[in-house]
User: What shape does this take?
Amino acid sequence: VGMGAVPTDKQAAVYSSILKSPLYGSILGSSDASFQLITLLKKVCNSPSLLNNNNNGEESTNETVKALLSSVPQALSHMRPGASVKLQLLDSLLFKLRQTTSEKIVIVSNYTSTLDMIQKLLVSLEYPFHRLDGQTPASKRQGLVEQFNNLPLHNSFVFLLSSKAGGLGLNLIGASRLVLFDVDWNPAHDLQAMARIHRDGQKMPCFIYRFVVQGTLEEKIYQRQDCRTPS
Assistant: This one.
């Protein structure tokens, strides 16, 4: 299920502020800085709050990109996660599933900072969850998977998964719903994430939700994905 969404006014303002920065053009001349700018724009699509406290990436940032970030008006950059249309959609989806089904759900993101943001939402809503990312010791991963698959719904509702850590062989058939919170340039990575729930042993119909913010870089990435994915 493709869930294209119009950005919130605040989200659109942050995105526009970055594009209109006088530093934007100079960044495009550097492949390294351009890649970091793409990552930055994708994170704004997830939530403008990810710009807070220099929380713009898990890797070192180009100096020009840092200068561009500092040029974003403070009133725009310091926002609450609720300014994200994706988080609003996720909140609604989780509520509906919780109220009308007995199904579990996997939420996948490319970014640890995004998983942190979603985790805070789950804690505030008192939804039970498990989490597996690059910091999870290998010795504990299978145990987390088994707990999620086997525990009753009131003890295990959501599985937060880093796409980089959710490799081949990870079996999450305890869930029949999966959210791709952000898009990847490589369609194989998203297909691999989908296969965490759509695999042998699954007894329920599976539903995949792809969150894409309209009018942003995410639409372009998804369009390129769609063209490259075998029919």
User: Anything to note?
Assistant: The CA atoms of residues 112 and 162 lie 7 Å apart. The chain has ten helices and six strands. The chain has a mean pLDDT of 87. The beta strands are 2-5, 105-109, 129-132, 158-162, 177-180, 207-213.
